[in-house]
Specification:
The complex is a heterotrimer of chains A (131), B (134) and C (286). Chain A has 131 residues and is α/β, with parallel strands linked by helices. Helix content of chain A is 47%, strand content 17%. In chain A, strands 1-2-3-4-5 form a five-stranded mixed β-sheet, with helices on both faces. Chain B is built from four helices and five strands; from the N terminus they run E-H-H-E-E-H-H-E-E. Chain B has a five-stranded antiparallel β-sheet with strand order 1-2-3-5-4, with helices on one face. Classes of the chains: A alpha/beta (131), B alpha+beta (134), C alpha/beta (286). The interface between A and B is medium-sized, with 22 and 28 residues.
């Protein structure tokens, strides 16, 4: 069966969604991710959606669900790379994904995760915590 | 108003929703829509195709390329022979849902297009027509 | 068109009419040989004459909106558009049609000889037709101009919303003038696009120079801020003047969750701290 690969980096899990997902694939990803978090004890999940051309309410719900379940399993989630046209459409659709952390790209997303877990990089520790 | 061209696609399975999205994208590009306009139309198409499949038990979508007074547009008509929607007003309210999704399918897609109409007969089916203009 | 000699006069004297008309156009003070070479003018005149001949033979009335006049109207649309682009004034374009009156009337007078009544009638018919066609070119000209203005407005709209990078990771969008719904939408899209291009995590929307804000504009701003958050960037709104603050509260617009600062300087301080740059001293409050 078709699956979206999940990479592990330290205690973070990385997912890059590059296909126009049909609904079942999205459900499978949700299940796979929660299963992997609990099995590996990962503390952060980064989902890169920069290749996604649309996010409808189904995918939106999947992202919110993953963030919610990860939180229960003691992991922080960040969604990175949402395209402007996708963001404008999501807002118009009425989906604001409250409770989901976001970042512009993978690098910044990793920083957000480290912050969320209370372990900023030395450079950031010097500059002071975020306001 | 007669359509410049039209095409009918079936909505019977998950994978058909993906095909509807792809068709809506290429027809939106043909209509000269900007990237944001394309994205809104494709997202609305995705929502309504899923409604047709999940609540209507499957059906069809007709795509029509339009032109009026030099403006180009795209119209999509979703039809199913499902159980129909008992309370349309309620179904169009934000947050209302009887199935998966976030209850934004109908109300949300209405905000993504310029024209939106819905007809539903109990036990006979539902028909949703949306259109967007350049 | 019963009892008219117009079609047959044009047919019999087509070449002579063209020569007369050309001679007159080339001698006229309105000639724009700087814009239009005489060979091209001759070709346009020839085509006009030929289509006028066909149309006047087929047409049932002097109403140039009728289908029989379609080819002639199409030709004039083309001529009028291209002249508009070449820089002709609307009256110069209309004169092209009106100037055909004199050569045509002379030939009609010749054809009628002493029949004053017949001549008067045909002169009236010819005048009715040529006047309508002349006005038609003016109308096309005007429409073409409107399209140009629309395009320029769109371009100005884009020019009037500059998104400036003020620091690594910080964008500023100083808005000036009247914000309407269309302009706010353009602002929204260009700001979000710049956020992606520059990787800026903070954007300051400064509305010091904005006269008024209505509900729709406020909603567009909030949507922009929400969309930016979905992409992973924060927005700060600065320079909200007291009247606008009152309007926002009065309209019941919910700004909860939106960071607002009194001045652009305050917003910048906040933004720099947010991206990890330390700032010494607070800006003086005006």
């Amino acid at each position: 069966m078709e699956r979206i690969p999940i990479l592990k980096m330290g205690d973070f899990l990385l997912v890059t969604i590059q296909v126009d997902m049909h609904d079942r694939l999205a459900m499978t990803l949700q299940d796979d991710l929660t299963e992997r978090i609990s099995r590996t004890g990962a503390h952060g999940v980064l989902i890169d959606i920069s290749s996604l051309e649309i996010v409808d309410s189904f995918i939106g719900r999947m992202l919110a669900n993953i963030a919610g379940m990860a939180r229960v399993l003691d992991a922080a989630t960040v969604v990175v790379g949402m395209q402007p046209a996708v963001a404008i459409t999501l807002v118009e659709l009425g989906l604001e994904l409250p409770g989901v952390r976001t970042a512009l790209d993978v690098d910044k997303g990793m920083r957000v995760l480290r912050h969320a877990l209370g372990r900023p990089t030395p450079q950031e520790a010097d500059a002071g915590a975020e306001g | 108003m007669p359509a410049l061209k039209d095409e009918m696609l079936p909505i019977r399975a998950d994978s058909d929703i993906v095909l509807v999205r792809q068709a809506a994208r290429s027809w939106s590009i043909d209509a000269g829509f900007s990237l944001v306009e394309q994205t809104k139309m494709v997202t609305a198409a995705s929502e309504l195709a899923r409604n047709t499949l999940v609540y209507g038990g499957g059906g069809t979508v007709r795509l029509e390329a339009l032109e009026e007074n030099g403006r180009r547009g795209l119209r999509l008509t979703f039809e199913d022979r499902g159980p129909g929607i008992p309370d349309l007003e309620l179904a169009l309210r934000d947050g209302f849902s009887t199935g998966t999704g976030l209850g934004l399918g109908l109300s949300g897609s209405r905000r993504l297009v310029n024209e939106f109409s819905i007809e539903s007969q109990r036990g006979e089916g539902t028909r949703v027509v949306i259109a967007r203009w350049r | 068109m019963e009892g008219t000699k117009i079609p047959e006069v044009i047919e019999r004297h087509q070449t002579a009419l063209l020569d007369d008309w050309m001679k007159q156009q080339l001698a006229a003070s309105t000639l724009r040989s700087d814009l239009l070479p005489s060979a091209e003018l001759r070709e346009q005149s020839r085509e006009f004459l030929e289509l006028l001949r066909q149309a006047s033979r087929q047409a049932g009335s002097t109403d140039v909106a009728a289908p029989a006049w379609q080819p002639l109207r199409d030709m004039l649309t083309r001529v009028s558009r291209s002249r508009g682009e070449q820089g002709f004034s609307p009256s110069e374009t209309a004169t092209f049609v009106f100037s055909f009156k004199q050569p045509l009337f002379s030939r009609l007078a010749e054809a009628y000889g002493g029949d004053a009544k017949g001549l008067a009638w045909d002169t009236w018919l010819a005048t009715a037709i040529l006047d309508q066609l002349g006005l038609f070119t003016t109308e096309v000209h005007q429409k073409a101009r409107e399209a140009v203005i629309m395009r320029q407005q769109q371009e100005m709209l884009e020019l009037s919303t500059p998104v400036v990078k003020v620091w690594d990771g910080v964008l500023a969008l100083p808005l000036i003038g009247t914000l309407d719904s269309a302009r706010t939408q353009v602002v929204m899209e260009s700001l979000l696009q710049r956020i992606v291009e520059t990787g800026a995590e903070v954007a300051i929307i400064d509305i010091t120079g904005v006269a008024t804000v209505d509900t729709l504009v406020a909603q567009h701003l909030i949507k922009t801020i929400t969309a930016a958050r979905l992409m992973g960037a924060d927005c700060i709104v600065s320079g909200i003047r007291p009247q606008i603050a009152a309007t926002i509260v009065h309209l019941g617009v919910d700004l909860t969750g939106v960071v607002t600062k009194a001045s652009l300087a305050d917003a910048l301080t906040h933004a720099l701290q947010r991206v990890g740059v330390s700032v010494n001293g607070r800006p003086a409050r005006a």
